[in-house]
Specification:
The complex is a heterodimer of chains A (376) and B (341). Chain A starts with 14 loop residues before the first helix and ends with a helix. Chain A has 376 residues and is α+β, with helices and mostly antiparallel strands. The radius of gyration of chain A is 21 Å and the shape is globular. In chain A, helix 11 packs across helix 13. Chain B contains eleven helices and eight strands. Classes of the chains: A alpha+beta (376), B alpha+beta (341). At the A-B interface, helix 1, helix 4, helix 9, helix 10 and helix 11 of A face helix 6, helix 7, helix 8, helix 10 and helix 11 of B. The complex binds flavin-adenine dinucleotide. Chain A: Keywords: FAD, Flavoprotein, Oxidoreductase. Chain A: GO terms for molecular function: acyl-CoA dehydrogenase activity; flavin adenine dinucleotide binding. Chain A: Its cofactor is FAD.
Chain lengths: 376, 341
Amino acid sequence: MVGLRFEPRDTPPGSAALRREVRAFLAEHGRGWTPEVRGRSWMGFDRAFSRAVGARGWIGMTWPRRYGGHERSAMERYVVLEEMLAAGAPVGAHWIGDRQSGPLLLRFGTEAQRMRLLPAIARGEAAFCIGLSEPDSGSDLASLRTRAERVPGGGWRLNGRKIWTSFAHLCDWMIALVRTAPAERDGPRHAGLSQFLVDLRLPGITIRPIRELTGEEGFNEVTFDDVPLPEDALIGREGEGWAQATSELAFERSGPDRILSSYPLLAAAAEAAADPVPIGRMVARLATLRAMSLSVAGMLEDGRSPAVEAALVKDIGNAFEQAVPERVRDLLDVADAPEGLRRLHAYVTQVAPTFSLRGGTREILRGIIARELGLR
Amino acid sequence: MREDDPGTMLAEQVGRLLAERSGAATLRAVERGEWPAALWEALEGLGLPLLLVPEAMGGAGLGWRAAGPVFQALGRHGAPAPMGETILAAALLAAAGIAPPPGPLSLTANGGERVPWGRHVRHVACCDGETVALCDAAGVTWAPGANLAGEPRDSAPPGGVVRSAAPVPERFGGEAAAAALALLRACQMAGALAAALDLAVEHAGTRRQFGRPIGRFQAVQQQLAVLAGEAAAAQVAADRACRAADRHGLAGAAFEIGCAKVVAGEAAGAGAAIAHQVLGAIGFTEEHPLHHLTRRLWSWREEAGTERFWAARIGREVQAVGGAALWPFLTARDEDDDTTP
Ligand SMILES: Cc1cc2nc3c(=O)[nH]c(=O)nc-3n(C[C@H](O)[C@H](O)[C@H](O)COP(=O)(O)OP(=O)(O)OC[C@H]3O[C@@H](n4cnc5c(N)ncnc54)[C@H](O)[C@@H]3O)c2cc1C
């Protein structure tokens, strides 16, 4: 018997009250958000907003207090995240730190690294980006070539290039996966990789924003030219970078950000639609995806590692998010829609292709599922 | 659902029993119009019919959360007997204070048209708005019919013998039979999709072309991954509807039941297509067991409200709520607001 089991999981008691707090906060801060801001969702970067979220205690919610966290449950955090996404809040300045950089440091960082960075992330002040992809290494990440070499007397020297790094031009820190030992012929390709904490103000770093098809600047090319990294820039253990980086993938892949990216458009269209059937289909799908995503969040909270379940939720979640702008065209004549809705639709249509690329492409995710089915 | 859940344990028993005692031959016989007497007795022996009947009335007193996995297990094996219908009919009758009679039961919400297994059951729970009546099925001159899977769907002439009738409590609602049947079919589809996935994966691992198992081809792998996603979505939607039925009553869970019927129905269409593609020509034969699952998937998605029917209901409800209030509406469905100021 193949197939994966998703056990139902409830949000915790008190969720309704927490939602009310977040909604009141969003109503206040969201007054000026344009359709494009809402359509950009977690790919929108707004430091002032992130500081306000941090001040409310909604970043690093599950982390220990001594690191600036709030010791709340993973499910409470889930509630806050989905409220932010449903409103189309520009959470990008703290999203990566809260979702993966912070948890990574908590798990593998030194005490000094944690004390230095986690409280700043939780306040919404330290912004992180993800340094994985390179010009010649996308899906085949293990082939990456950026390298760090030990410098006699301590520290490391970083050389190479990362690309598609979201918000690098606006961030303070990058967590980069780089090679610290050459891949051995016939050896495991994932060996010899390590993770580094890169202060983006260091000399030798050139950050070049890359214009997206929307005309905006979101992702970047980041070049490292003999960048001097201090000894304590290494995260976790040398050579363990692959295992460390992939251990967070279930967190990264199953969250509400993999099903709600186009929610603001769905909500806006629901009201204007003439035909209830496509709306009903989408809402049925969305309600089910939420249950699946919550189920994975529950497994994570229980200390399990539902990597395959997370890949599956991301795959069908992305397919749903991506279908919304197309389905909406069946619901109403977009060309004649009110201006706000038309702009939101136009924006989401343009960014929707990224949903099944970022964080692991559709084909890579389906490969993970197929492996679980015993096919590869 | 935990291992020690009564629903999970019962579902395992049902699964084992059907794996041993049912199969393609039984399904073929049922499709020819035969009654699987021995199998029925074995299923009855597990104590299934009174699953949802309160303990005070001699039942197991379990809820929809326990029934869901049992319905899914039945669907996984093509539901070769009307056990799901019997469980539902007994629940509705008991809710109205009518002691469910022994033997196979069915239920109808439309005055006796296309009653599941009508000619084979002893009694039918006839639901009409807020009333449920216990009607005799034996002795009725059934006009035999079948869905496209060959499952009996028989019509009775009006004016049969009514043993007793009573109002259905509010928690079950005026559409209790229709909602219960939709929930049953959604659960069965989730089970049948899991079984179709099993068959397709097994075939992909054994059928060789171009010198290797076809499952080694990435195009095939990707399609099976999609099928796995659809099967999982159907299962989650069905589980969620069962939990909602326990929480809000059948009447209050119409939204989640509708979602489950829509998602499982969509998964049935997409999933059956993939399974057939992977199986190739052998899957189109009468001899191969795949069609027992896929023809049921195509049948069950039409019964108790199509995707279109339920989606229209959900869509109208959502439109009445409005775009801005949609998100609060969705989250409140699953949460008890224990702290209203
Ligand atoms: C908006 C956006 C933001 C991003 N932000 C970041 C970021 O912050 N940090 C970062 O590191 N990266 C980021 N990325 C990069 C992202 O992770 C990559 O796009 C992704 O990993 C795919 O790599 P690629 O674009 O090089 O495509 P490729 O790997 O070249 O793939 C191209 C196509 O080929 C398919 N393909 C590749 N290999 C296989 C295979 N073995 N089998 C079947 N099909 C295959 C892919 O599925 C895809 O459809 C971002 C991307 C986008 C679009």
